[in-house]
Amino acid sequence: MPGPHRMIPPGTPEQPARPGTFRRIVTIFKPYKGKVAFVALLILITSGIGLINPLLIRVVFDDVIGGSGPRDDRMQLLFLVTGAMVLTPIIGGLLGLWQTYTNNVVGQSVMQDLRNSLYSHLQNMPLKFFTSTRTGEIQSRLSNDVGGVQGVLTDTASSLLANMTTVISTIVTMFILSWELTVLSLAILPVFLVLSRKVGKVRREVSGQTQESLADLTAIMQETLSVSGILLSKSFGRQNYEIDRFRKENRRLSKLEVKRTMIGRGFFALVQIFFSITPAFVYLVAGWIFLNNPGAGITFGTIVTFTTLQSRLFFPLGQLLNVNVEVQSGLALFDRIFEYLDMEHEIIDRDGAIELTPAETSGRVRFNDVWFRYERQSGDGTGDKRLWTISGVDFTAEPGELVALVGPSGAGKTTLTYLIPRLYDVDRGAVQIDGIDVRDIRLESVGEILGVVTQETYLFNTTVRDNLRYGNPDATDAELEEAARAAHIYDRIMELPDGFDTTVGERGYRMSGGEKQRLAIARVILKDPRVLILDEATSALDTHSERLVQEALRPLMQGRTTIAIAHRLSTILAADKILYLDRGRILERGSHADLLTAGGAYAELYHRQFSDGRVETRCEDGLVLASGEVVQESLG
Question: HSE on the CB side for 472, CA within 13 Å?
Answer without folding.
Answer: 21
